[in-house]
Amino acid sequence: MDRVVPFEANFGVDNRFEVLRVPKQNVTGIWESEFEGNTPDDYMAKDIFTQNKNLVNDTFQTTTGDYRYLQGVLDGDSLKLSTFDGAHVFLFVAKVFDSTMLGSFYSANHSKETWVAKRAPNFELPSEDSLTFLKNGYDTMSFSFPDTSGKMVSLNDPEFKNTIVIVQIMGTWCPNCLDETKFFVDYLNDNPNTEIKPIALAFEYTKTPERANKAIERPKRTHWGSISHLIGTIW
Fold first, then answer.
1. Of the four, 24, 67, 196, 224, which is 20 to 30 A from 173 by CA?
2. Domain for residue 194, yes or no?
3. pLDDT digit string (tens) for 16-37?
4. How many independent structural domains does the chain possess?
């Protein structure tokens, strides 16, 4: 998937957004958001805001991850938040009222979603166990996929017998997945004698196995030596 986002940079400018007015509200706290409301693409998010004068920090947690660490400003009643993590360019803008927000979410220059938020200090997303689980009739999961060398890897392989296996469903394009993988790698480096063996199943947005394997091999070579297998699959 090839996408290009033009940009320009000005050296020595440290303010991300221009501020002309004092903030009319303080958004610090937890907010409940709904994206693309009343559409088939509707989904919920938990917003965690901190505000110091005009400066605002935030993250949107969803059931499938988060929108990274956002920073921006509240200029009067106008909220502006953005982030760039090396792969994703996000911009959130909203009109802020006392206990509600009405806004738009831009993902680079190819996607726009509406979102609304309300103050909800006790709001929580659904439990992870309600989102990922084995279907009735199944006691365990099973798979067989080739790794980047072409070797077939399965949970039934002898090397995984009598060990704790963590199966990570991820993609090299997914920053939340990379955070999770880094956690596994750091844990294994700090606990080299553990019997835990993670396996990463990478779903890559590529048109050929060669490009998928190239995307997988780069971080594997530099950071992920502790992962038992990093397996590439293509959708």
1. 196
2. yes
3. 899 999 999 999 999 999 999 9
4. 2
